[in-house]
Specification:
- The chain is of the alpha/beta class and 348 residues long.
- The protein folds into 2 domains: 235 residues, Aminopeptidase (3-Layer(aba) Sandwich); 70 residues, OB fold (Dihydrolipoamide Acetyltransferase, E2P), CATH 2.40.50.100.
- 18% of the residues lie in helices and 32% in strands.
- Helix 1 links the parallel strand 4 and strand 5.
- The longest helix has 17 residues.
- The radius of gyration is 21 Å and the shape is globular.
- The two termini are 31 Å apart.
């Protein structure tokens, strides 16, 4: 398969200079493409930690649509999605503005780690604090200086270290706007997840910004199949929001995603060498054996069964499993009466 990066680059041509700002001011930017760094905090020597941002302002009025990637520093598949989207956008195609935040967690990206400089998970402390730890201030300024200007948001993630994911969406499936955004991504699985947590999506929803989280495969990789599918879904959502015109096949000609009313992880209660049997997107029955743990000498000391029927949203692939290790992420299938919106109920 050809690379998502289809345009050759002359290595002799130096990159254009990029401005550094303390606040993203979408309305003050000119029509067309702007690349800039938004400085959020300073490191221990007074150098700024700068978030790379791409902005495409259209020639016609419309909403501000934000895409964010790499809030967890080792979750990289969203980066080529943003790059390729902006490679194909022109001001004449866009009504409003598209903002692509290439990497929110710059220190984590440099360290190949999920967390921030101090190990804090930025996606568990939103909306942060104006005055607090460096991670809390950084989280607060992500919202205050960047995300607060969005009218819609898709937050791009992957599985974390030692785990793999399906292509799935977390969204409030009782909200017509976010349910439509979820279906238009054409994921394998949708998990109903009201935005009442301390995630970036939850904080954005609390600010009145319709938002979904798109999980695109596995960590510390670029996976062509997943990123191409994610890009096509992002374009469909942009068209639905009135930002671009984008020809789409009838949504109802594609296979409907598996809709889950909730999901949860299974964990080990014994440490050892872990094997997890079901494949991602596979269905399991209640009581089906899904994993086992062995000692250093190969003796089986524990086997685990699915507590209920469901679909495998993600799973552990790390054989080293201490007590409390994740086994698999099990989605509980939606049923009539759950109140979750179908595609037709979203006007799609």
């Amino acid at each position: 398969m050809d690379s998502l990066y289809a345009v050759p680059v002359d290595p002799v041509v130096p990159p254009a200079p990029v401005d550094v700002v303390n606040q993203l001011e979408v309305g003050a930017l000119p029509e067309g493409l702007t690349r800039l760094f938004v400085e959020l905090v300073g490191d221990g020597l007074g150098h700024g930690i700068r978030v790379p941002v791409m902005v495409m302002r259209g020639t016609r009025p419309g909403p501000v649509f934000g895409l964010t990637a790499c809030l967890h520093g080792n979750e990289l598949n969203g980066i080529p999605v943003i790059h390729e989207l902006f490679r194909t956008l022109t001001p004449e195609q866009v009504a409003g503005t598209v903002v692509g935040v290439v990497a929110l967690n710059v220190p984590g990206l440099h360290r190949y780690q999920r967390g921030f400089t101090d190990g804090t998970d930025l996606n568990r402390i939103m909306p942060g604090k104006a005055s607090g730890s460096v991670a809390e201030v950084y989280a607060h300024r992500i919202l205050d200086r960047i995300v607060g200007q969005f009218g819609f948001m898709v937050d791009l993630h992957t599985a974390s270290f030692g785990r793999v994911n399906s292509l799935y969406v977390r969204a409030d499936m009782r909200d017509r706007r976010t349910a439509a955004m979820a279906y238009l991504q054409r994921p394998q699985i949708i998990v109903h997840n009201p935005a009442s947590d301390r995630t970036l999506r939850g904080a954005a929803m609390a600010m009145g910004i319709p938002s979904v989280t798109l999980e695109i495969g596995d960590p510390q990789l670029w996976q062509e199949a997943y990123t191409r599918s994610a890009l096509e879904g992002v374009r469909a959502v942009l068209a639905w929001a009135g930002v671009i015109e984008h020809a789409q096949d009838d949504l109802h000609t594609t296979e409907a995603p598996v809709l889950c009313r909730t999901s949860s992880w299974m964990y080990t209660d014994r440490g050892g060498l872990l094997e997890v049997f079901p494949e991602v997107t596979g269905h399991v029955e209640a009581g089906e054996r899904v994993a086992r743990v062995r000692t250093a000498f190969g003796d089986v000391i524990r086997e685990y069964e699915a507590p209920a029927p469901g679909v495998v949203v993600g799973k552990s692939v790390n054989p080293v499993g201490q007590t409390g290790a994740r086994i698999l992420h099990l989605g509980e299938l939606s049923a009539p009466g759950d109140g979750l919106l179908g595609r037709g109920e979203c006007g799609l």
